[in-house]
């Protein structure tokens, strides 16, 4: 597999369409490798973190309403990075804010792009398995319920369509891999 920029698209022009609190949208005119011109709509995002909190034989999840989907989802704790914030520190912050738990050792599992065809959002996934209980402190606009599920229950929630986001599905299968092999990756 080639790692060169053989397929690179050179930006000819960029137009900023929207600048919001979380994302921005731009439209780029690009020159393709064959010399023709195309348009790319690009969502810019500061990046995010997600934490797989393991408590014995259960994972801690939160259920919250997701307006873009018009329904509630069961997810692992997660949140966006704040202006150049270190992902590990953000993971610790999100774990505490959403669940009340802290963890002395949070380990990186993987980082992945959510939708590289139109967005640059990069999520850093961590695992926390030495949980210390505390008091949750969600953001003022966050309403969520914290629960614990087994691996089998998490997989059932995926089948039922209650866990549908990529970060949580990836975390569930990373946890399953760990239980089978002793490694998250």
TrEMBL record:
Cofactor(s) it depends on: Mg(2+)
Annotated InterPro entries: NUDIX_hydrolase-like_dom_sf, NUDIX_hydrolase_CS, NUDIX_hydrolase_dom
Entry superkingdom: Bacteria
Keywords: Hydrolase
Stored Pfam families: NUDIX (PF00293)
Ranges for domain Nudix hydrolase: 43-178
Keyword match Plastid: no
PANTHER family the record matches: NUDIX HYDROLASE DOMAIN-CONTAINING PROTEIN (PTHR11839:SF18), UDP/ADP-SUGAR PYROPHOSPHATASE (PTHR11839)
Name of the protein described by the UniProt record: NUDIX domain-containing protein
Lineage summary: Bacteria, Bacillati, Bacillota, Bacilli, Bacillales
């Amino acid at each position: 597999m080639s790692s060169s920029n053989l397929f690179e698209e050179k930006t000819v022009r960029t137009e900023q369409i929207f600048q919001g609190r979380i994302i921005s949208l731009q439209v780029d005119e690009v020159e393709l490798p064959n010399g023709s011109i195309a348009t790319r709509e690009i969502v810019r995002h500061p990046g995010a973190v997600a934490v797989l909190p393991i408590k014995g034989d259960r994972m801690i999840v939160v259920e919250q309403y997701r307006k873009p989907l018009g329904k509630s989802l069961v997810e692992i704790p997660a949140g966006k990075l704040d202006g150049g914030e270190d992902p590990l520190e953000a993971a610790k912050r999100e774990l505490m804010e959403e669940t009340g738990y802290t963890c002395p050792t949070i380990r990186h599992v993987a980082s992945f792009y959510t939708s590289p065809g139109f967005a640059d959002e990069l999520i850093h996934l961590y695992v926390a398995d030495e949980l210390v209980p505390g008091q949750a402190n969600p953001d003022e606009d966050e309403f969520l319920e914290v629960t614990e599920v087994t691996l089998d229950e998490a997989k059932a929630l995926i089948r039922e369509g209650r866990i549908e986001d990529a970060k949580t599905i990836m975390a569930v299968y990373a946890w399953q891999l760990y239980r089978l092999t002793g490694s998250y990756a």
